[in-house]
Fold this protein.
Amino acid sequence: MKWFTALVCTTLLLGLTGPAARAAEGDLQLEAQWILGSNDPVAKGRPVAPEIENKLKRLPLKWQHYSLIATQSFAVGKDGAKTVTLGQDCEITVKNLGAERVELTLAGRGKITQSLRKGQTLVTGGNDENSIVVLRQAD
């Protein structure tokens, strides 16, 4: 009988703490990247991931090379907002509007609202001519 009581208590304990340990259902796990475009193949920073570079090269941008300056992963709860500083000249605020919709505000530049499903990428110009901010759901 003691083992049965212990089993029931353990099951209840795991059932109560399990959901709390997981991320809330409406949370978005995001990754923001600050990228600089250049026509110089030896620019500062690291090369961007091939899938990001391919997406950037399909856009009407004048740059041939892209360098990753900073990246940051973070979570935003439903109806919540998070401010992320990617560098001295690059600060963004991301609001989770629910249903995989986000509102991205780039300090000094304005707001963009769009769906951001897995595999999609939000790309916007940064504060400098060759500055680009990329936002996507983290894997």
